[in-house]
Design goal:
- There is one protein chain.
- This protein is mainly alpha-helical and 173 residues long.
- It has 2 domains: 9-63, no CATH class; 78-172, Winged helix-like DNA-binding domain superfamily/Winged helix DNA-binding domain (Arc Repressor Mutant, subunit A, Orthogonal Bundle).
- Helices cover 53% and strands 9% of the residues.
- The protein is built from 8 helices and 4 strands.
- The strands form 2 sheets. It has a two-stranded antiparallel ribbon with strand order 1-2. A two-stranded antiparallel ribbon has the order 3-4.
- A hairpin with a 4-residue loop joins strand 3 (45-49) and strand 4.
- Helix 4 packs across helix 5 (95-108), helix 5 (95-108) packs across helix 6 (114-124) and helix 5 (95-108) crosses helix 7.
- It is globular and about 55 Å long.
Length: 173
């Protein structure tokens, strides 16, 4: 999910922030800041706020995840052993994020085109707007490609699982 699209740097940057980092917004419940995004959903870091400042820090789980991903690089797809450790972490500590991977794997097992993939996500989250469905489905496709679950390119307009993707899907069903 590193921003690599040189033709659309702002879009690539926004996608990276949404799917790899997250954000903090002021004025949530009772005026407390609200954190969202992967680093917070994965419990990698947390916020601490007092009247003077807002601090962010790594959690013990964050250090555990960093250790599990110690051999990761910018090369894609990432090693399957590392992917398996990451997915095990998500299943235990971030089931909401794991849901997205499982949903995209279920959908892509049927070798869908883009519209069928979007319909699968919409059926799974009927309250989501079409824009949110599009953003999330494509985000999970991109992340799944980086982890070696989905073929890097569509074949005849269809998404396909890799052998590793089929294995992971079989293991979780």
């Amino acid at each position: 999910m590193f921003p690599r699209n040189l033709r659309k740097p702002q879009s690539a940057d926004e996608g990276f922030r949404a799917f790899a980092v997250g954000s903090v917004a002021a004025g949530g419940r009772n005026g407390h800041p609200v954190a969202s995004g992967p680093l917070f959903a994965w419990k990698v870091c947390q916020l601490h706020s007092d009247k003077r400042q807002l601090l962010i820090g790594m959690t013990d789980l964050g250090y555990e995840l960093l250790e599990a991903l110690d051999n990761i690089s910018l090369d894609a797809p990432h090693p399957s052993e590392t992917a398996e450790r990451f997915f095990a972490y998500l299943r235990e500590h971030a089931p909401g994020d794991w849901w997205g991977f499982e949903t995209v794997l279920d959908a892509v097992a049927e070798e869908p085109d883009r519209n069928t993939l979007l319909a699968h996500f919409k059926a799974a989250q009927p309250d989501w707007s079409d824009a949110v469905v599009g953003t999330n489905s494509q985000g999970y496709v991109g992340r799944s490609r980086e982890w070696g679950l989905i073929e890097p390119k569509q074949i005849q307009g269809r998404y396909l699982l890799t052998d590793f993707g089929r294995q992971i899907l079989k293991d979780v069903k």
